User: Fold these one by one.
Assistant:
Number 1:
Amino acid sequence: MRKRSWAEPYKIKMVELLKMTTQAEREHAIVEAGYNTFLLKSEDVYIDLLTDSGVGAMSDRQWAGIMMGDESYAGSRNFYHMRDTIEEYYSYKFTVPTHQGRGAENILSQILIKDGDYVPGNMYFTTTRLHQELAGGTFVDVIIDEAHDAESEHPFKGNVDFDKLNQLVEKVGAEKIPYICIATCVNMAGGQPISMENMGAVRTWCDLHNILLVHDMTRVAENAFFIQQREAGYENKTVKEIVYEICALTDAATMSSKKDAMVNIGGFLAMNDESLYEKSCELVVVYEGLHTYGGMAGRDMEALAIGIKESVQDDHMRARIGQIAYLGERLERNGVPIVKPYGGHAIFLDARAMLSHIPQEQYPAQALAAALYVESGIRAMERGVVSAGRNKLTGENYMPKLELVRLTIPRRVYTQAHMDVTAESVVEVMENAASLKGLRFTYEPQVLRFFQGRFEPLS
Ligand code: PLI
């Protein structure tokens, strides 16, 4: 077969104009924002790679779905469409809508975790771990060591290390482990997938120990694409088939549909067990809304149902991952240290390697994200010691091995030319890295400090 590029399986029907800023304006803006890219005004940003969450471009079909919203308080037609689509594509029998992923995490953690419990997972995610801790649990990282090594080219860095899992059971006992939380395409590891073989082994392990398997399925379609590309026996299966097979191995799922499913808002908690569903229905009315809308408008549930169907198309996923690989290749060719293999939703810059003169206590990834914004108006996100936060018992900073800046690619939003500008800007910042200084907190929130923390440069 002749080689073909990954060009997008869509064309552009509407554009949003962007404001161009000067370097002097950006220098002012970053000081105003306390060197935190979360605190910038989006109109001061040129290329917004802060996140892939809620910022994808919806299709004409999804927008048409918005017009079909049935805004009834109870029993909206769009809820049933969403619920049936979740069962058809993701296998789960029961669905509780939530306003976004963390709403589902809150409900699930409150139901399943007791004071003193342990929740193993293939690396932490910020909101997921916090909800586990707020419910009285302790998160335990059981991901393979390669996931903490930016240079390891392991094809499935999201895999679980069974020695770590078994050690935990020996230490605390299976009765202290209500569930294991497995993320597909592990965000904090650099958007790295788990293999189907490993997922199947986790299922067997859970059955053996009578422990539930909960799936953080936020980026399951991207994980499925990597399985198709990398795992023997899956090359002829579709992304849609692989997504279903992954989900069917698990008992319950939390979902932020703002990623894979390309909606601006929305998520859900899904499961196969009816009693867990009933308890979730009791809690969803406290925190989100009635169990048939859970914090979403009817129109949003309709767009979500359509987004699920679009997210598992092979052509869509080939272009999505192809765009990320294009950026990764351009950066690598210019000697920029990045996490390998390329992730499913982002390219992660290795700030530890790029800013080796700044110790981790001085937040090198935070400084790098701020410098990239000043250079060209590109907004990225710190994913290092600031995001990791503090240990709830000792108050000490967690010191993650990975000190990263995430260039997150929104789905169907930017062009190849935007990727070129991004790569050129990162190279420019790298060439001037020696002039960058570390930062210190001037305001540190108690939880999820990366969102609202403020900093100043060390002199
Ligand atoms: O932002 P939410 O509440 O819809 O979803 C929380 C959430 C849960 N799990 C994972 C793996 C996530 O990546 C996630 C949210 N991620 C964000 C906002 C991000 O920028 O990566």
Note: The first strand starts at residue 47 and ends at 48.
Number 2:
Amino acid sequence: MQEHYQPSAVEPAAQTKWAEARIFNVAEDTSKPKYYCLSMFPYPSGKLHMGHVRNYTIGDVRSRFKLLNGFNVLQPMGWDAFGMPAENAAIDRKVAPAKWTYENIAYMRNQLKSLGFAIDWEREFATCTPEYYRWEQLFFTKLFQKGVIYRKNGTVNWDPVDQTVLANEQVIDGRGWRSGALVEKREIPMYYFKITDYAEQLLNDLEDLDWPEQVKTMQRNWIGKSRGMQVRFAVAEDSKAGLSGDYAEFLQVYTTRPDTLMGATYVAVAAEHPLAAAAAEANPGLQAFITECKAGSVAEADMAVMEKKGMPTGRYVVNPLNGERLEVWVANYVLWGYGDGAVMAVPAHDERDFEFANKYGLPVKQVIGQDGQSFDPREWQEWYGSKENTRLVNSGEFDGLDFQTAFDKIGAKLQSLNAGEPKTQYRLRDWGVSRQRYWGCPIPIIHCESCGDVPVPEQDLPVVLPENVVPDGSGSPLAKMPEFYQTVCPCCGKPAKRETDTMDTFMESSWYQFRYMSPKFSDGMVAPAAQAYWQQADQYIGGIEHAILHLLYARFFTKLMHEEGIVGVKEPFQSLLTQGMVLQATYYREPDGGKKQWFNPAEVDVQTDEKGRPVAAVLRADGLPVTIGGVEKMSKSKNNGVDPQQIIDAYGADTARLFMM
Ligand code: ANZ
Ligand code: ZN
């Protein structure tokens, strides 16, 4: 017997024994209760980081606990293998994304195995293989035929130098990350999922999930259901030039606060609104402003922090309640894609309008009062937008009403004037899944001049992505490969062109939870018997950064698969645990006028006070001081990662696992 614990001898011996006895390999077994424990599968970026160790150890602890309690436990592992980092690596190192990805998988699989998790490795798959994505393509063609997927123009970021579409994160200060060229907006045809048709279901079904309340709230806010009214302001007689149809008659806005209508002091429209275009005809200054607005970011996060800017149009509309003339402005904070692309601005009670009105010297008219509190028209106070314990003021016949009564009465009045009606609105947009990238699942559509967009017939699937391609960062490689895109139309047999866009990689992670149930099934996404047994993941574990998009898309896909009769459940993950961030100290130097330089904690010697708090730090290499930054999320960008492999090598996997718990 060794005096000291020797992890490098003990752990592999135990792991080999488990593997030989196949103790973590499971099959459907109705004699035992089942437990499906799923951890978010990794992107094969190169090597494991501490976030992975934490995520998978939590899953493993639960799995083993259930195993020891007599459950038939499924704990699978696989690879979310498509995505941009492989293309970036290809550009940097001139190696094919496929090769890079498969090598990373091989390395990380060994790392995961050395951690000794109770994983059924016989179920492993990578989403970049045709055996996986062929079912996604088949599903795509079915949904396209059903109309759940449709094609329309969407706006993308276009890099005029690299001749390529950029993802939002590749646009830095309005310029392409590689070329530095000013990014342009372009309209190109793309495929969209009608996720908006499922907004209500996605919202309601949250109720029955054992998920953290915080995550449910994030999903609710993302779906963003609001009850309000469409209100129509008549276009003033002197303001109709250049407008036609309904637009010449009235300007329609969407509001959640019809109770504040008497406080509207101007109306604002998005740069894309026809009224803006009409007013700009004879106004070059306004035209220039509209162009500027359209070039800007459309990301909602950017909109929220952006400086509010606007210009008057010189056009007027009439308030349907009191006949007041209100000037129409073009404002960059009004989104064309939401509601009617126009707002009735109530600066006294809406913070965005308040900021805008103060900036441009527009009137502020109070119509809501709270217990005789005085109103300061320069500084925003919480209660200005409040719906609770408030009464209408300065609103004529509606004075004294509380929020709900005012909402209903003004609503009824507008309806009787044919100037508005109730409207429920969702913030959620349809899901655009086309990506002008190489390393993704090919969209299985053929474009024929006579027949239009034709889905690839089932017997011709999968459309295989060629794996020996090394992208160079300019344009989409598939669009430059006639051997890929030249084909014939499945309907008429004439020469036709294959779609060269690939799918958003959120597609693959939207149904992998079911694929694990029968990973080798060769007749569809999931074997019905396996799904009937495993149902859904009992426990899902992963990072909070996926609280919105991934979880929403996986829930949406499950509903679509349920409708198609592929699965018998409507939700993929019954219980959710978000594991939190792994943190670590940061150290840096900031050379004059230079970029911050971050030092890994392993390269730094730290002095602490009697309470163990760091007070000074020096870089071991040169003995000179470094600045102590905060404790932050472990990440490459702050160079504060600790490599789990070093801990495993020195102290063993059990130590690493226990420490992370
Ligand atoms: C007047 C008003 C007064 C508003 C007030 C709010 C407070 P949610 O709840 O998120 O749906 N709005 C409408 N369309 C818009 C657009 N295309 N771009 C930017 N803002 C828009 O938000 C609805 C509110 O957002 C609407 O109610 C409208 O401003 C604004 F004290 O109308 B409100
Ligand atoms: Zn054809």
Note: The first helix runs from residue 7 to 21.
